[in-house]
Design a protein that fits this description.
Helix content is about 20%, strand content about 25%. Strand 7, helix 3 and strand 8 form a beta-alpha-beta unit. The protein is α+β, with helices and mostly antiparallel strands. The protein is flat, with a radius of gyration of 26 Å. Helix 1 packs across helix 2. A 5-stranded mixed beta sheet has the order 1-2-6-5-3.
C-alpha cells in the first residue's frame, strides 16, 4: 500500500470515529473539527475543549492507533505573514543594514497561540498532525500526558517558551530557561535583546542584573536589490569582435 492510500484510509477512519464521538459524548460536535491534506500530510484542527477526547480516540482506536506522540510544540501567530527581515527595495545607503521597528499590528486575540501535536502510528505506518488554537488572554489546554507519557517534557517546553498552560500536567515548570527568568522567549513580542542584562560589579564582588540598555533593532543578514540578470530571457551582451589588423 502506497503512502497516499494509507492517508485515504486514515482520513476515512477519522471521519467515522469523529461522527461516533458525536453520538457518544454530550456537547461534542464533529463539524467543529476540520481536516486538510497538503504535501502528503494530514492535519486535523480540533477545538481546545474537545482536544482530550479526540486524542484519547486517536490513541485507542484500532483503525487509527497513534501509539507515539513524536512532538508537541507551540506557535505564536501574532505576526504571521509579516516580516521585518525583508529588505527588497529597501532604501539603504552605504553599509547600513538596520531595519527600524514599526509599531506592532493588532493581534488576533482569539487565535494567537496554537499547540501542534505530531503523532505516529507504527501499526498502520501513518502520521497525523493535530492542531488546536488558544486565545491570548487564556492560553490553556488539557494535558495529554495521561494519553502519551512522553509528552511531559514537550509540554513543559511549550510552557517555558510560549507561556502555554497545560491543565492536568503533573509537573508544569520551566525546563530550558533559568530560575527566575522573566517572560517567554519564543513569543513574538519578546525582545530579542531580552529583559535584563548582567555584569560583574567589582565593588559588590558579584554579578548583578540590570534592565537592558541596548536599543531594540533588527540586523538583517544581507540587502537584496533588483538585478536584471535574474529577469527571464535576459542574456549578456556579446563582446564586440576585435578589429582586424591592418595589412
Amino acid at each position: 500500500m502506497n503512502p497516499e492510500e494509507r492517508l485515504d484510509e486514515l482520513e476515512e477512519a477519522l471521519e467515522e470515529q469523529l461522527e461516533d464521538l458525536e453520538e457518544k459524548l454530550d456537547g461534542f460536535e464533529a463539524d467543529q473539527c476540520s481536516r486538510s491534506r497538503e504535501q502528503g500530510e494530514l492535519t486535523l484542527v480540533v477545538p481546545r475543549e474537545q482536544l482530550l477526547s479526540v486524542m484519547r480516540m486517536l490513541r485507542t482506536n484500532k483503525n487509527i492507533g497513534m501509539e507515539v506522540c513524536v512532538d508537541v510544540c507551540g506557535v505564536d501567530y501574532s505576526t504571521y505573514g509579516e516580516s521585518e527581515w525583508i529588505t527588497s527595495g529597501a532604501a539603504n545607503s552605504g553599509f547600513g543594514r538596520g531595519v527600524e521597528r514599526d509599531e506592532r499590528p493588532e493581534l488576533d486575540p482569539a487565535n494567537r497561540f496554537a499547540v501542534v501535536y505530531h503523532l505516529l502510528s507504527m501499526t498502520h505506518n501513518t502520521r497525523l498532525r493535530v492542531k488546536t488554537f488558544l486565545d491570548a488572554s487564556y492560553p490553556v489546554v488539557d494535558s495529554v500526558t495521561d494519553v502519551w507519557a512522553g509528552a511531559n517534557w514537550f509540554e513543559r517546553e511549550a510552557f517555558d517558551l510560549f507561556g502555554i498552560m497545560f491543565d492536568g500536567h503533573p509537573d508544569l515548570r520551566r525546563i530550558l530557561t533559568d530560575y527566575g527568568f522573566i517572560g517567554h522567549p519564543f513569543r513574538k513580542d519578546f525582545p530579542l535583546s531580552g529583559q535584563v542584562e548582567m555584569r560583574y560589579d567589582a565593588e559588590q564582588g558579584r554579578v548583578i542584573y540590570e534592565p537592558v540598555s541596548i536599543e531594540p533593532r533588527t540586523l538583517v543578514p544581507r540587502v537584496i536589490r533588483d538585478d536584471l540578470r535574474y529577469e527571464k530571457g535576459w542574456k549578456p551582451e556579446e563582446p564586440a569582435p576585435e578589429a582586424e589588423e591592418a595589412e
